[in-house]
Amino acid sequence: xxxxxxxxxxxxxxxxxxxxxxxxxxxxxxxxxxxxxxxxxxxxxxxxxxxxxxxxxxxxxxxxxxxxxxxxxxxxxxxxxxxxxxxxxxxxxxxxxxxxxxxxxxxxxxxxxxxxxxxxxxxxxxxxxxxxxxxxxxxxxxxxxxxxxxxxxxxxxxxxxxxxxxxxxxxxxxxx
Length: 176
Known about the structure:
The protein is an alpha+beta fold and about 180 residues long. The chain has helices at about 20-30, 40-55, 95-110, 140-145, 155-160; strands spanning about 65, 75, 80, 85, 125-130, 135. It has a two-stranded antiparallel sheet. Strands 3-4 form a two-stranded antiparallel ribbon. The chain has a two-stranded antiparallel sheet with strand order 5-6.
């Protein structure tokens, strides 16, 4: 399946934020060599895209520009990315493409992006007792429970995606 690149217009058939050349170039700049076989790399990009757009969909800043038409979560309107500057609604933030490259590298390295295996209990373990085995799960995924959705994201991904999501790297304080 060929990649259809989102160009900021809200394409109905888009399935990637960046082309293979861009992803390879960014990976190369980080000292990583991705698959030279386009078809293999496309599969990795599509897996990374599925993770990026499903895992962070509800956390991305702003609103989808044309929600009834566009296939992907970006472009977005009213997305204030850095220090009060709103991202133009017809452009993709460079950080988004960096996140896609990072995730593609992880897929190429055989890293499992989605942590819950098929058939496993959904939700984050919030309490576990060893004696007389007890386990309690949160109804809310770890991603949405705290730290702006970054608790279960690798440190590098968390740093890359923080400006794109609501509450990125914001600590919540609780008085006890």
